[in-house]
Automatic annotation (TrEMBL):
Pfam families: DUF1899, WD40, WD40_4. Signal peptide: none annotated. It comes from the Eukaryota. Keywords: Coiled coil, Repeat, WD repeat. WD repeats lie at residues 79-121, 129-171. This is Coronin. GO terms for biological process: actin filament organization; cell migration.
Length: 485
């Protein structure tokens, strides 16, 4: 009589180990915002940690260097230019000093943080984007095109901006009948997926403004959902069942009739915030108010979504920041890092794959998205698409000096904190308004000419994109009139 052993699924991520950093490496005495909005409240990149904090009479967020630890003094300067609470913050994927903030004051602001961090409160934004009539709660930078930013507000509008020129290049006003919960770009930025209060999942071409796919009732429950584009084009959603059980589902965009996989977890009320690592194809789920972080691996083999493990602690999380792969410690086999928000503390949590060898683990670290953009904004507007440019993490990653700091239109001069000079200027860390700068130093003729040429080029790209859209609509109209549709 012979016995067959059960086949164990082979995966190098079956034993991912979550480790909390020691208390001396945490950031203490931060008054994390109590705003009732389902955003992570935190954004992290290889240079800075940004956390939305409580602020009297307006909205503010704290920005500190990523190496900062210990107690934060109450007099520590913040970014505090909004007139109402800040709801979302997102770092630019192409410049680690640029951050966008969305607020209840119906505006989105773009800020440039000096290399050393803030030394005085920052109230003047580089750029203010005004196009929403109600509070703005969702921000999403384009993954590969420089200076393209998507915003969504409680007016059910999606706006796509070129922050290099300050222009609103696309506006989607008819796609959603109700409150938008979440927006995610696909890998090359050619499409977005959204989930809405009407329980529908939509795949949208933002340049043509057309809804490509719709799936009604992705999750039966009434509580907020989330959706993420995965690198292979599939979509992962989180939501609630009719019995209020939290669910995770995987969808194939070629056929949205049925999910590829559904996993039910528990009956907690906290909205599950998914964080995705395209290099390892792992998904981490952080529930607001939960004491756990669950992690899964998505593969091409059934059941497609494989539960790996969970990190559990005694204290619930108010939000969490997810560090981009460029910032992890490859020498310690760290594949992901979270910054968990407590009521008064930020606690780093490392996800590592234990290995005996001290050598660089090539299988754990495939080339990852770097900070160099694959496209310029006007190229994407004209209809081009490209995946992010990849860089190797061998030997660790060092961000190159930014080549795109001067691509924001009418960018005010910023005091240089890393130069160490005490030249006559406003207090370090604040911006000088454009008007004042122009009065003090008239713009050279060549610079003005270059600005005009760049603006003309961007406008020409917009006109080209719109003419292509008109042609498409005319063809569709002709087909309808001929009875083909």
């Amino acid at each position: 009589m012979s016995f067959r052993r059960g086949v164990v699924r082979q995966s190098k991520f079956r034993h991912v180990f979550a480790q909390v950093w020691k208390s001396e490496h945490c950031i203490d005495d931060i008054r994390v915002s109590r705003v009732t909005w389902d955003s992570p409240l935190c954004a992290v990149n290889p240079k800075f940690i940004a956390v939305i904090v409580e602020a009297g009479g307006g909205g503010a967020f704290l920005v500190v260097p990523i190496g900062k630890s210990g107690r934060i003094d109450q007099s520590c300067p913040t970014v505090c230019g909004h007139a109402a609470p800040v709801l979302d913050i997102q770092w630019s994927p192409h410049d680690d000093n640029i951050i966008a903030s969305a607020s209840e004051d119906c505006t989105v602001k773009i800020w440039q943080i000096p290399d050393g961090g803030l030394t005085s409160p920052m109230t003047e934004a580089v750029l203010t984007l005004e196009g929403h009539s109600k509070r703005v709660g969702i921000l999403a930078w384009h993954p590969s095109a420089l200076n393209i930013l998507l915003t969504a507000g409680c007016d059910n509008l999606i706006c796509v901006w070129n922050v290099g020129t300050g222009e609103l290049v696309y506006q989607l006003s008819e796609a959603h009948p109700d409150l938008i919960y979440n927006v995610s770009w696909n890998k090359d930025g050619s499409a977005i997926c959204t989930v809405c209060k009407d329980k529908a999942l939509r795949v949208i071409d933002p340049r043509r403004g057309t809804v490509l796919k719709v799936k009604e009732k992705v999750h039966e429950g009434t509580r907020p959902m989330r959706a993420l584009f995965l690198s292979d084009g599939k979509i992962l959603t989180t939501g609630f069942s009719r019995m209020s059980e939290r669910q995770l589902a995987l969808w194939d965009t070629k056929d949205l009739s049925e999910p590829m996989a559904v996993q039910e977890m528990d009956t907690s009320n906290g909205v599950l915030l998914p964080f995705y690592d395209p290099d390892t194809n792992m998904v981490y789920l952080c529930g607001k108010g939960d004491c756990t972080i669950r992690y899964f691996e998505v593969t091409d083999e059934s059941p497609y979504v494989h539960f790996l493990s969970l990190y559990s602690s005694k204290e619930p999380q108010r939000g969490a920041g997810f560090l981009s792969k460029r910032g992890v410690d490859v020498n310690k086999c760290e594949i992901a890092r979270f910054y968990k928000l407590h009521e008064r503390k930020v606690e780093p949590i490392s996800m590592t794959v234990p290995r005996k060898s001290d050598l660089f683990q090539v299988d754990l670290y495939p080339d990852t998205a770097g900070s160099e953009p694959a496209l310029q904004a006007d190229e994407w507007i004209a209809g081009h698409d490209a995946p992010p440019l990849l860089v190797s993490l061998s030997g660790g990653y060092t961000a190159p000096p930014s080549k795109h700091r001067d691509t924001l239109r009418s960018k005010p001069q910023l005091t240089s904190q890393d130069s160490g000079s005490g030249a006559a200027s406003p207090s370090a860390g604040t911006t000088v308004s454009t008007k004042e700068t122009e009065e003090e130093q008239p713009q050279p003729r060549d610079e003005l000419l270059n600005e005009l040429l760049a603006e003309m080029k961007a406008l020409r790209a917009v006109v080209l994109a719109q003419s292509q859209r008109i042609e498409l609509l005319e063809r569709q109209l002709a087909r309808i009139e001929d009875g083909d549709v």
